[in-house]
Amino acid sequence: MTRSIAVEVAQRIRRVLDTRGLTVEWLSDATGIKLRTLTRRLHLTRPAGLTVDELNAIAGALDVAPGVLLRDDQSDATAASE
């Protein structure tokens, strides 16, 4: 069974936060998305899907292109090797 894109995006966002030593609370402050909403959006097993505006705000706060949060690891590996 394949994972939903919402789960994959939530995991990627959390991975970036963890790598940079940032918290969901920080992301909430940086994006203006309420902490409760963001927590639901980033739940690791049953996330509520992000809106396009939320994805753009998160990408902006993390200083990455929104597409980076949407791509799977295989795509990243393929793009890096080309």
UniProtKB/TrEMBL annotation:
HTH cro/C1-type domain boundaries: 12-71
Species: Sphingomonas taxi
Highest rank taxon of the organism: Bacteria
Pfam family membership, one: HTH_26
UniProt protein name: HTH cro/C1-type domain-containing protein
GO MF terms held by the record: DNA binding
InterPro entries attached to this UniProt entry: Cro/C1-type_HTH, Lambda_DNA-bd_dom_sf
